[in-house]
C-alpha cells in the first residue's frame, strides 16, 4: 500500500450544492447521486491514487472520464455551519463541481 494512503479514509461521503450532488466512496467504488437519483445511484469503479495534491479517484464510464479529487483542509458547504475536514472537486461528463467530504465513521459534529 502507498505510504500516503492511510492519510485518507477508505470510505468518504462527498457532497456539493448548486447543483446538489453526492458521491459515496467505498474503496474504489463510487455511488453518485443527485436529488433525482437518490434511489438509484450511478455506480462507478475508480482507481485510487495519492500525490502531493491529495487523493484522486478516477476512471472512465462509457468513454467519459470522471474524477473525484479530495484534499485535506477545512471546507464549508455554504449552507450550514458544519466544518468538513476535506474539500473535493468532482468531474463528470465534462462538468466540474466543488464540494466537501468527511469520513462517515467520524462525521463532523453539528454546529
Automatic annotation (TrEMBL):
It comes from the Bacteria. This is Uncharacterized protein. It comes from Stenotrophomonas nitritireducens.
